[in-house]
Amino acid sequence: MLTWRHAKMAFLAYLSATMSGRGAATAFRVGGTTTTTSTRVGGRSRSLASAAAMSYLSHNRCAATTAIAGSVAMSAWGAGRFVSSSSSSCLSSSALKSTVEDTTTTESSAAAIIDHPAFDILQTDTVTEFGAACTLYRHKRSGAELLSVSTDDDNKCFGITFRTPPQDSTGVPHILEHSVLCGSRKYKTKDPFVQLLQGSLQTFLNAFTYPDRTCYVVASQNSKDFYNLINVYADAVFHPRAISDPMVHAQEGWHLELENVEDPLTYKGVVYNEMKGVYSSPDSLLQREAQQSIFPDNAYGVDSGGDPVEIPNLSFEQFAEFHAKYYHPANSRIFFAGDDDVLKRLEIMDEYLDDFDDSPESKPGSTIQWQKKRYSEPVKVRHPYPVSDKGEGGQPDTHLLMVNWLMNDAPLTPKEEITATILDHLLMGTTSSILRKTMMESGLGDAITGGGLANELMQLTFSVGLKGVKPDNIDKVEELVVDTLKKVVEEGFTEDAIAASMNTIEFDMREFNTGSFPKGLSLMLGSMREWVYDRNPTEALKFEEPLAELKESIAKDGSKVFTDMIKDLLLENSHRTTVEMFPSKSLEEEQLNEEKDRLSKIKESLAADDLQSIIDKTAELKKLQAAEDSPDARATIPSLDLSDLKKEVTEYPIAVTENESNTGATVVRHELGSTSGIAYANLAVDVSGLSLEDVPLLPLFTRIMKETGAGEYDSVALSRKIGTHTGGVGVSSLISGVNQEGAPEGVVTTGEHFITKIMISGKSTSDKTDELFSIFDLILRDAKLDSQAKIIEMLREAKSSMESAIQGSGHAMANSRIRSRYTVIGYINEKMSGISSLDTTKALLDQAENDFPALLARLENMRNTILESSTCRNGMMLDLTGDASVFEKIGPSVENFLNKLPGDNQGDKLQNFYAESHPWAEQAKAEMAAEAPLVDEGFVVPTQVSYVGKGGRLYDTGEAVSGASSVISRFLGTGYMWDNVRVMGGAYGGFCQFQPRDGIFSFLSYRDPNLAGTIDVYDGASEALLESAAVLESDPEALATAIIGAIGDMDGALSPDQKGSLQFKRWLAGESPEQRQKYRDQVLNTKPSDFKEFAERLKALKDPSSAVVSSKSAFEDASKSGKSFTLKDIM
Fold this sequence. Notes:
It is built from 41 helices and 30 strands. Helix content is 44%, strand content 17%. It starts with a strand and ends with a strand.
């Protein structure tokens, strides 16, 4: 469950991780509960090809998702004048259109219209863009609306959305979103949501709180599982235990806690602590102030997620009244998508809806009011954000500044909305887009903030600014934004700039590649962008007509289409705010003192009986939280049987040709049933020849390859070339552990055998692969390494992003730091992207500014080493995914590309990494003792919460690891950790991670109000697991539930490119299909004795150590409890 401000960032992380498999899906789902905001969070991620059509569904009229931390387009353009109006059509997207039309069932409108006596049919429609037959129903008795979308997608999706505009910042929509999933009329356990997490094959299970609506969503590929999920969610939203049990509100929202009368009062609550973490982030504070400044008069002017200062003002009575007012079926929008039976959908929902009479006042009572553009002149807002006292000699603190517009105060036409989307891409879509590029090149700040267009809500906003701004430059930032827009209006956009942006967005829309994210959920969030405001839900999903209208207008008027919109909606629009966040060294302490004073006054005002009542309620809540659900309660939760599970591992096609056509390169092909005419390509280039000292430069090096220009192309021209001819190109690094030759599979490896590659990835229609491969070759050989100004920009932005990540995603940083102490790969990864990489980035920035020739020499030496002619060809692999038709068409392009690759096709062979240790391994082991010692480390940042990690070695090298370990690790995370760290501890998340390949186990918490207490919880896990092992001996259903959940994590919906990528990485690691099947069999045959054996190992965890990201005061408190850390100030 997520609040939408943070769901954006969480979902992008989810998409990014799921591009290569199922890796982070569980972490995202288990994360807790979610909220969302309207102005985008700073900096844009423009490299997530897996989000494809989400780019449209979330940036356009289809829009929404939990996930728009930035948008997801892949290329850009530059400034200039539009030369002619002859052609802004996009060849690759046009080719994709014809292919998709050939492979999509557009006859779905012929599907029978299903009648049901309890429902009226309001409209029928066919969304040909997605092959979807749609019927909008209205339930006769309750007034609920239901949109049934029939597609051929077996990843079935269901959702219920309620319009929930808040009146204040007590966070009632967010707290209710958490709370309704804590038991209901039919499903009697304390937390059915967790039971579903523990034992379902769900591919998505979560909920989102927006500023004006709350969404509850499930998805599954298994029909029985899907119907189970629907029933639990439907009963939860309409009949929750929470509205009659104040303990739920106390646990999920807030409560006063007191165990002894002499102790100080404290506030506890999951949402309360979650939002304290949010309000510790400068980026989040900036977004909050921006949204509230733009919307002073309607529901968007308060925080639906909750302000920690205001949350304790929410009474249980107000909480229950909010549910009664807004959770009536008449105020709901119910959504189905997939290949499940339509009649079954209607029958299930009628069972729940028939309990309610119509409520004609519900919809009018939740109407969102339009914010009028009422500012006669721009408004300035200043607000502090917390920073640490760096002392003398520390770097000066900087400001954040963002300029924001409310773009419309009346509905836009579909054409206007898609025009705004393309305009957004032209201005902000890539690092070479004119507004983004100008801002970064100005040197006025370190990183972009504000994501440009945001259209997830009823009204569009546009925001852009900078982080890392010196006080003297504050006014200059706002001036630069306005002046740049004026310049764009005067000069217009060039034809190739428009063509590149049009192709990028159109390719994404047509491909509709959402990775492991359910396509049905994308359609739901898209339709909701209109439906929740009482407009046509299916029209929101259609893009062909408005896109054609826009192309016609561009052919007629050229750049004027976009420059007129800039004038009308931005430059001549005085409803503008400029939000400045200024640093405060005392803010964190002031907030702590204010909370202590508030609680102290409350305690002083209470009589002895009142204090005893709080003590009693604290004890009662803790007892309730610690109590096990009764067998009868657990029996109410619907579940699958082990017989419902697929027994075999899903394997995907793979054909490997070494030294293809005598080129010296290896080609790996994955021929799938259909990829809609798209070729997915990855060129892997070996980098093992680099020195370990240069490995931390790889993130910078790979970014330079794409963003500084190459050969005859400057950065703008290269970006346009990518945008015009492809669906996106990206460059990254890959470090993959491999199985040692001759060693048994399924054992902990030495960690010294691994593959290191640069991965150049891209996609295009089959008729454009020549262009795609020419771009691969261009950036590999001729990327401009000497762009000092651009490299300084990158390093400043990387420094700012890393600081934000440490402060906002401290659990990931703590985990990376822990793992760096035990394995070579963990150590190398941490050097590249962990906490220690911040120091590296600072040093590189200093070198780039003061001794660029030295840095340039390092970069040039890296490229020369990578492309060393005698060995580089042998280390190259081309991984291709497509269908039979694609492979037939791209054959000549592949052969031509392979023959032109750099290096000698008869050159030397690289070492055998499967038989010999990687050349970095020995030096890395030598460095680890000094650079990653086995000590408990604390990293100090300004924050009101903690991120607590602890880990160690669970299995030694050579020991066999059973597949049962994945069942048990997951059981710990969704059971003991959830109950003790989240439910009783009040953290937003608690989980654990185990890697069978290296034998390292770690505990982690997220937005945690505790530190020392959480480590105590970790230390008690082994005993709790031993107790569970004993219980499972006589509870086969609980054991089956744990197994089912683990299988659910292993299986999931994958996009075509993900299938190819997963099989490629399996092959690269040296995994055999037999070992994968053996591991799955072990999962399916997990026994209570496996739990006991795992618990004994956990009890004897070797060389344990901790890494914690928290505040100075939290570390001081932990020290008083006997938990000492070696501290380092980060910010």
